[in-house]
Every structure is written in C-alpha cells, then in structure tokens.
C-alpha cells in the first residue's frame, strides 16, 4: 500500500462501457495503475485499445454515451467521479490538465490565443507562459488566432494552456501525432523539459513506441480495453513478457534494419534481406527535371529519378516537401509545368484522361487513406472488378469475378470478403483492397503514397511485407512515398530525400543511412525516435538542434551535386553563419 | 487515432455479411427510426385517401346543394357542409388529389433537375460553378410567391403550368444542397482513383458520386415536397392555384374563412389535412436525415 | 479583409444586376404581346397601340431595359398603369407600412428563435429540446395563412384583442396601423422562427460536440463561459445565413399574411398589381425584393466575417 499512498493518480479496476444499439459495449475493462509525482506513465496500444478513454477519466470526462461501469479514479486524493461539479471544475486545469492530439481543433477558432490561455487560470502572465513553451515573440503571438499558427506552434500553445494553472498532473493524449518528425521532436523535448522544471507527473497516451521509449518511466500496454502488460520502460522494451507486447515491439521498423522485419506469432523478429534488383532490369519510370506549380508556388522543383522493374524507390520528406504532389503528377492527376516523365509504355507527362488505356493501367496509385479511397457504397469486390472490366484485363463479367477473387487472395485476403462493404473491413484489410485494385490493371509501376501512415504498427508491418512480396513476385517498379525513415529503411532499395520540392540527397538506402551527407537528412534521422529507451535516464540531455549544423543551399545551376559514389549524391550546401533564432 | 477514440467498431459478426440491398437498407432505416416511420405512415395514409376517395365517401365534392349550406357536423355530413352545401369531408378527402398530384410532379421535376445540375456544378467547378451560382442566386432573389404569381397570371393556372413554375423557383435551392453534398464527395480518393483510371464524367457521377449523395437527395425530396405543398396551398389560398370548384385545401380555407365562426369545421378540416401531410413529410425528412447522418437544415428556408 | 468585403459587395452588385435582367425579362417576355396581355383579348386596336406607345414596346428590349434601370437607379420606376401615379411613391408608401410588420417580426422571430434554438441544442434529447423541436416542426408544417387564420380565431374572435382586418388605406398613420401589426407579425414570426430554431439547435449541437468545446470544459471553465465564449460564436455562424434567407423570405411571406388581414402593405400591392397586370409596379416590387435579398445576404456575410477570424485575418502572414 505504500505505492498507493504516495501516488498522485490512482486508477483502480476502472471499467467503462459505451451504449450502442441498446446494449453496453465495454470499452475499458478492469484497468488499474498508479502514478507517483514526477513520474511519466505511458498508456500504449493500437486504435480501439481504450487508451484515450482511460486518460480522459483522469479529468472526470467520458464521451457522450459512455458511462463508468466500475472502479474508481483518484487524483490527488479525490475520487474524480464522485466530485461535485464545482470541485470537478477546480480539479480540471488546477490539478490535472489535458493536452490533446490535434491542437488545431482543440483551440477555439474564434478566440485569441492570449485570452484562451488566460482563461485557464493561474497567476502566471500569458506572455511568460508563451515564453516558457519557447514560442518566439510571445506578446505578439498572444494576439493571434489559432489558425494563424503552424501545427507545432498550436501544440505549444496547448501546452502553455495546460500548464497555466500549474497543475500537478499532465495528461498528454497523442501530443505529437500528426506533426512532422522534426517538429515532434521539438515538442517532445519541450514536454520533457517542462515536466522536469515543474515537477509534473504525466500520463502519456501514444501508439508510437518510439515516443514512449523516449518519454516514459513506466509503460502500461492496453489491448481492447484490457491491460496486457505493465512494466518500467527499460524492462518492457528489453524483456517484455506478453506475446502481444512482443509482437507490437517487433513490428516497429528500426533505422538500423538492413531489410524488412518479418514478425512471427510470438513476436520473434527476423530481418529479411533486401531483394536483389537484377543489374539489367529495365527502367520502368524515368523523371527528368520535373516541376509542378500550384498557382504561384512551386511544389516540385526540378526533380529527377529513375525506377527500375523490381526496385523500390522511396521518396522521403516532411509535409510540404512535394512528395505526394510528385506521386499524383506521375499518376496523371496533376499536370507538370516542366520536365519529362516517361515509362516503358509511354509518356507520363500527359494527364490521365489523355493517356492511352495501355499506359493508364500500367501506372497505378495506391492511396494513403484506405478509408476514403474506397467507395463506401460499393462492395470491395466491385472496387476490384471495376478496373478489371474498365481496363479490359478481364473479358467478361464472370471472368472479372473470378479474377477479383484471385486478386484478393494475392493480397492475402479471404476471397469470401468480396461482397463486404469497406466499412465492414478493418483498416489493414481495406488497404489490401486498395492494393488489389491497383494490381487489377496489371501495372508495371505502383505508386504507394504513404500507404501505411494511417495503420497501426502491427498492421503496417503486414502491409509492408505484402508490398515487398508483390514487387518480388511481379517485378513491380515501386515508388514508395513516406515521411517515416525507419519504414523506408526496411523496404526501399534507393532513397530520394525531398525538401520544399527539391531533392537534397539521393542514393542507395544503405549508403544514405550509413553516412547521410546533407544536414537535412541528418536532421530527419536525428529526430526519428527509436523504440529503445535512452540508456541515460535523462532524454532531454541531448537537445536535437545542436547535432545538426546550420546550413544554406550552395547549389549552382551547373554544379548541383557532391558525388559520394555508387549513385549516392548530395545537393551542395555550406555551413551558415548563425543569425539568431530563425 | 482520435483524441478520444470511438469504441472499437462492433465485431464483424454483428453486421450482415453481404452488403445490404437498397430495399434492405431502407427497411433497416425504417426500423431504426421511429420518426421516419411515423412520417412516412402519415404520407402513405394521405396517398391512400387521395387514391381511394371515391370509395371512401359517396358525396360528390363538387355538388352544390343550397338546402344543405353551412351545416355543422352531423351523422349525415361528418364534417358539415360549406356555404354552397358541399360536403366538407368529401372535399377534404378529394382535396389530396390535387395537392399530392401537383406536389409530387413538381418535386420530382425539381429534385431531378437540381440533382443533375448540382452534381454537374460540383464536378466541373471553376467558372461554370461561379456563373451558375450567380444566376441561381438571382433567381432566388425574387420572392417565389411573386414569381409564381407572375408566371401563373401569364400562363394560366393549369396544373402543368404550376408544376413548371414551382420547378423554376425551387430548383436553385435543390442545386445548392446537392452541390454542397457532391462537393464533399468529389475530392474523395475513390473519385480521384476513378479519374486516374480515366473514367468519363458521367460514369464517375453515376458510379461514384450519386450512390454517396442519394441520402441527401432523398431527404431533400421529402423536405422539398413539404415546401411545395405549402407553396401550392398558399397559391390556391390567394386564388392563383386550383380553380374554384376544384376541391383543394388552400382554396377551401380561403372560401370558408369568412364563415369560420359559423362552421369552423369547414376551415379546420382542410387545415388539419394540410398540416398532417406536411408534418408527415417533415418527420420523414427529419427521421431519414438522422438515420443516415445527413445534415439536413443546411439551407434553412 | 478589405478585399474580402470588396469581393462580397461586388458579387452582391453582380447578383443584383442579374436579378434586374431576370425581372425585366420575366415580366416583359410574358407570352404574346405585352399590351394585349395587359389590356385583355377584347381591347380595341387603338388602346393597344396607345399602351404600346406608353410602354415603348417598339423600342428594342435592351433599350427599354436601360431606360428602366436608369430610372430605377434614381428611384423612378415609371407610372402605374392603373392609378397613373408614380410607381416609386406608391410602392414607397406600401413598403413603409410593410416595414412596420417586418421590423416587429424580425425583432421577435430572431431573438426568440435564437434563444429557443440554443436552449434546445444545449438540452439536446431532454424535455426542453423535445418540446421546442416539436413546436418548431409544427410551426414549419403549417402555412402562413393557416397560422394567420388561427390567430384571428383566437385573438380577434374568441378574445377580441386585435383587429381581424385593417380598415385603413395605404395612407394610414402609424398610430392607426399599430394595433393591426401584431397579429400579422406573429403569424410570420411563427413560421420564420421554426427554421431558425432548427438551424440554431443543430449548429449548437455540432459545436458542443467539437474538440475545442471539450477542451474548454476540461480546462475547468464554467458551463456558462464555455457556451458564451467558446461555443456560441461558431454556432451562430451557420445560423446567420439562415436568418438572412428568412428575412429575405419575408418579402414573399408577407404577401399572404397581408391579404389575410387586408393590411395595406407591399404584399397587398403585389397581389393587386398582379391581378391588374400593372407591369411597372410588379417590376418595381420584384427589384426591391431582390435588393432586400441581396442586402440580407451581404449582411450575413459581413456578420460571418465579424464572427470568424479566419475570414477577417485572411492575407495576414503567419
């Protein structure tokens, strides 16, 4: 009982149910944990694990339609769900504060930043709070509206709002999901610093084991509303006991994997060597000096690359790097404003509807979000049959039906699912249908636009493996677009790093990861969080920015590259003189 | 991963394995939404009465009978008679024929035109959208009652004139609603996928867009129908709709209003008939939109 | 921000221009010869010729349009075919009387329905919501003339508080008209409020379910503060346009109600001029209604700008 006595948060056999269709659907079942002051506990799980529901109960909040079916939540000695309204209000903000995932939606659009922070109570002046979350020009910023801030800035404002009344416990619900990796790292470092500075206890909700390893002292793994394992971070990552945890950990791609990790039932991890691309494999797609403009702004600026049959080329970059624009341009959904794009079967510079059918079917796009890429009102079989019939790869209706079932088994799906609607499938299943639909045209080139981003980590591992199998079996040239370096490391043969529409570095995956030549690539790699707890217990001891030199572009029109051999080349740059905070 | 995630979707076993057919879906909706059921029953009863009126009552709704004028409700005339001695109940029962016939025709025409135009605008976009938007706004800017009055005085009060006139004044609003719904669908990746395949505009419209806005169109139909019924009755009330001996609710209220203290039923009966029909349509629209998650009142009036 | 206002105003002027063409065409393009239409089939050729002369029907349509518009911009809508008086003055007289009803209606309907709509939204699925929603459903299911008739039955016949019909002409003073304003205004307000209530309710429900309202609650703010500061500005935004549409709708709805009460307003003038085929008056009324419609929408757009900082700060850098 000593731990309980010292605990500031104590959740005891908490159960929550959601009322749906006249019956109770349990969301959280018998969850218990304690949190002592100054410590950080992570609630980890995949979507639907109930982790956010548990976190919100610390503030006495349940979503509309949910109710407490058992257990207690005590914060700072008070039973949260037994508090009268007035005291619950005092608890919220005063004792426990929440930072949500999407600050863009968590800030009231019609109120100035300063007023929203001031409202949260406390005696600290708003300007000081904004300075404390390392926002530049706080006095000016306080007068801004939320939509005038970038995503990272919004999240910092949400943090300022949370610490305004100097709470004792901070609940962080996926605080950096949706942020770019460099921004994420900055926000996490800030959270860590504030936590130590103010002596806060924190509950961190995350699906990202890298973030958890970086931030948490203790980890509680949830699955379908139940605790599967709870342990100190070091022990959990080094020697997890539960097979689900093991599988989860093993599924996370690492920056030092030399190939794709194949995860077994019990969580054993085996790295499959990269497929060897035949030296004489024909070039499937070749892009030269491609430029794409959106009105006055240039999204893609003079990008060149080649992909050979059976090869995976990764386009890596943060949001706004132009990587998705490039994908859509190749698929004929956007017109390039300059440069050439050709494939084995024709000119790719023309928009889709002007391409001959033989070309259209050979270049296929798989979308990021399988939820929106399938028509919710048509069966998934229909989604696969349509291109079969449309491209004429299946002659008759009956043949199309047979081929569709075959394609479904090709993407490791049960053909019996053919008559389901997309909503009746899981996210991973839907993404497989998206791939099957693309395969229906018997393409040479597959453009995969962030296809695993919306998926849980274990599902992501399966989809990546499928993609790797397919390119081996079908000798697909694959353009793999991603923001996640660790994912790219496992699947790509070559990497192209994009920044603001410009290629800053390209080369064989091994070479780029072993010795990144461009500071931007180094920044991306440094910011990526590995699912391994820092050996030193103070993660904030290594501020990110110091690792990477300030730089400016030094490319001349006739001298763009520094060549590192074997096709590894880096855009010219030079260290920049420091000029204050930028 | 949402901040406060929704509970896990019900296990697949809870949902039917095959995609439900349209009728099965409609049936499920009805079972799940009492509001929609009640509304549709109201409407169905009205349709039945209008169709079966000759079988339900033996009085001729047009037969004057000066001896029987202005009678209160009695066993012989359940709702009394009007100033010409016509049986009020007979006129109310027959009255639905005109109201429903003209309303259904006008609403069908309006919604069909509006859906096609709305989808086309959403898919095409650009200057086409701008120009059409301005023109429709200009049409909306003239009060529909005034526009109807002018058209009807110029072209006569024939049912087809009224149907066309109503289509002219109400298509713009349907276009707005459908355009809004279609605009939400057009940027979806499955439409993009169809575009990348090189499918034609019509095929995209039919295969990808329409199935996803059919809810909105249905709800709009019910709502538009209620609006049209009200408009037609107002027109009749003002003397520009149904021609006098025709049994029509709006006309009946206009005719019997002056005698409301003498034979209140002669005014109240058509009012009740009118109100129940419109309430039924509104309930149906409400229930369906709730069951299907359609944001119904986007446009208000 | 200025460019936003400028664009909206420009669009409004464009719409108005289109409306005027539409009104002109619709009225002038009545099938058959306009003069014959106006005078009826058995008019003498001389009379038809005289009217053609008067309406300048021999000139090309665009010239007549230019004449008409040029006059209209100066408030000169020509002469009434029935009374022979200047249309501008006549319409103005009736319009003033109608404005009295419109003012009362808008005042009551907008404030009342916003309050009720917000209340229903906040008490979603509880008894105040059920009550308000049911009443507003009935309100929007009953035509204006029915509401008016029922009101007459209740407050003029059963309880003789207000006059059932107005016995004055258009020149009546405000003092004479004032007692007769309340019932028509109430009838219009009931119908109009129904739509606004429903919209306000829906958008309050939407906004109350938003993430930022949840965040505000979890900040420990009082419900009052959450509702007034965080929820209402955004919830009113979509309601604004519905209010504008409904105020514009008054121009048509007033026609029916004024005829029930024999109120000497623009609606009554509208009906009688349609019956008499008094084209200049019809054109003038249609154009004025279009101005009202466009002005209401413009006001709603500007109101939206006041409520939505995204529109206000457009163009400012990050």
Q: How many DSSP H or I helices of chain A?
A: 22
Number of strands of chain A: 26
CATH topology group of the largest domain in chain C: MetI-like fold
- Based on CA atoms alone, the radius of gyration of chain A comes out at 25 Å
Which two chains have the most extensive interface, and how many residues on each? B-C, 52 and 63 residues
Counting DSSP E segments of at least 2 residues, the number of strands of chain C comes to: 0
Shape of chain A: globular
**In order across it, which strands form the biggest sheet of chain A?**
18-19-20-15-21-22-25-24
Query: How would you name the CATH homologous superfamily of the largest domain in chain C?
Result: MetI-like
Weakly predicted, low-confidence segments of chain C:
none
**CATH level 1 name of the domain at 9-251 in chain A:** Alpha Beta
CATH level 4 superfamily of the domain at 9-251 in chain A: P-loop containing nucleotide triphosphate hydrolases
Q: What about the largest sheet of chain C?
A: none
Please, what is the average pLDDT of chain A?
86
Structural class of chain A: alpha/beta
Question: How many whole angstroms does the radius of gyration of chain C measure?
Answer: 24 Å
Low-confidence stretches of chain A: 1-5, 536-545
Pfam families (chain A): ABC_tran (PF00005), oligo_HPY (PF08352)
Protein name (chain A): ABC transporter ATP-binding protein
Biased composition (Basic residues) (chain A): 566-575
GO molecular function (chain A): ATP binding; ATP hydrolysis activity
